[in-house]
Every structure is written in structure tokens, then in C-alpha cells.
Amino acid sequence: MSDTIPRAWTVTALADALSNGERGSDISVERIPSADAVLRVTMHAHGDLSVFLSVAGEQIVVSTLLWPVDEQPDADAFNRFILKAQKLVPLSNFAITEVDGRDYYELVGELSIESPLRAVEIELSVLAENAIDAASDLRAEFAA
Prior knowledge:
By secondary structure, this protein is α+β, with helices and mostly antiparallel strands. Helices cover 32% and strands 35% of the residues. It contains 3 helices and 6 strands; from the N terminus they run αββββαββα. It has helices spanning 11-19, 75-84, 117-143, and strands at residues 27-32, 35-43, 49-56, 59-68, 93-99, 102-112. Strands 1-2-3-4-6-5 form a 6-stranded antiparallel beta sheet. Strand 3 (49-56) and strand 4 (59-68) form a beta hairpin. It is globular.
């Protein structure tokens, strides 16, 4: 797919494009066997962070789990802070999602299914950087 003529991405097309894209050895892409429409993108330049990518309706969704909510000191204050400071986290939104009966903080980004490949690659990188910053800086700020 050309970056100059946007087309509607599918998970299969994104898997192929990302595997052969500019990032090369910086990322690995694999399908999640139990979820046909989900890719795991391992961000090697970001400590092998797993970012999950799916295509739903008119959007591409990328996300990564951060840490369990019940392990966050003063979770109520932290939740208020991230809602107020949301504008400080470029291209990403905080969420809480349940995994195996336990709530986790999650970082999420969305793009149009017509976004150029370069925009998808940027979203993946920015989300990974934001996740690392959140884990090291934001979480530590509320642990003290």
C-alpha cells in the first residue's frame, strides 16, 4: 500500500506492511491466535514492549497494558491526575481494562483506517514511548 494514496487497512494488510516497513528489525509482528483481528507488535527498541493493534470499523486501535490498578498507590488521586493531564500525553489516552478479572491501566491510540503507513508506525512508537514514560515517571510520582 502506498502512503500517498490512503486505502482502508485490514489487519492482514497492516501485518504485511509493518513486517516489511521502514522499522525493519525494530519491531516484530505476529497474529494473536485466539483473536484473528489482533496483532501483537513487539517494539524491540522499547524493551520488547508488546503493543496490540486491531482494526475495527473505521479505526485502527493500538494499545498496551501498563500495570494493575490495585497496585497503584492512591489510585483515586492517580485517576484524577491522568484525566486532568491527558493533554500532556501526545496521541495516547489512558483507559482501564479488565484482564482475567483484574483491572489494568492501559494506554490507547486510534487512527483512521485510511491513515498512511508512516502514521501507523509513528503511533506505535509514540504509544510505546508514552507507556515507558508513564511507567517510569507518572507511576513513580504517585508511589512516593
